Amino acid sequence: MFMGEYQHSIDAKGRISFPAKFREQLGQAFVATKGQDGCLFIFSTGEWRALEAKLEQLPTSSKHARAVSRFFFSGATELECDKLGRVLLPAKLREHAGLCKEATVIGAGRRVEIWDSGRWDEYNEKSRETVDGIEEELTGLGI
């Protein structure tokens, strides 16, 4: 289970340091892909294989299913940390997430997300506006 929020810089080559806690859980190699809400999703190899299996079950006759598969698979790439705990994020993924200088790396349960720090702040500000809806949803789940 990935938890927490960490601030990191992206260097001129497009590398970002990964929190040691996350590196331990992800292992040496892991998968990055385009995420929803304008961030990147990072999955351990095992979690990626589980997502792959679910995506492969989607009917190719469905326009929406094809779009979902294309979204995740087209951006997917395997990453490895270097000796200093950094990963090189491909340019296309950095573009998708608007990553330039400052990034926020968060734990999101079974995955890690990488956000442009400004975009993350905006997302959180908008989320505060929908707290009432979230509270109702949590109550419905018995939380």
Description:
The chain has 143 residues and is of the alpha+beta class. The chain contains six helices and eight strands; from the N terminus they run ββαββααββαββαα. The protein has helices spanning 20-26, 45-56, 63-75, 91-97, 117-129, 131-140; strands at 5-9, 15-17, 29-34, 40-44, 77-80, 86-88, 102-108, 111-116. The strands form two sheets. It has a six-stranded antiparallel beta sheet with strand order 1-7-8-4-3-5. Strands 2-6 form a two-stranded antiparallel sheet. Strand 7 and strand 8 form a beta hairpin. The mean pLDDT is 93.
Shape: globular
How many beta-strand runs? 8
The average pLDDT score comes to 93
Distance between the termini: 19 Å
Helix segment count? 6
List key phrases describing it.
27% strand; two-stranded antiparallel ribbon; 143 residues; 6 helices; 43% helix; alpha+beta
Helices and strands in order:
Layout: E1 5-9, E2 15-17, H1 20-26, E3 29-34, E4 40-44, H2 45-56, H3 63-75, E5 77-80, E6 86-88, H4 91-97, E7 102-108, E8 111-116, H5 117-129, H6 131-140
Question: What's this model, at a glance?
Answer:
The chain has 143 residues and is of the alpha+beta class. It contains 6 helices and 8 strands. The protein has helices at 20-26, 45-56, 63-75, 91-97, 117-129, 131-140; strands at 5-9, 15-17, 29-34, 40-44, 77-80, 86-88, 102-108, 111-116.
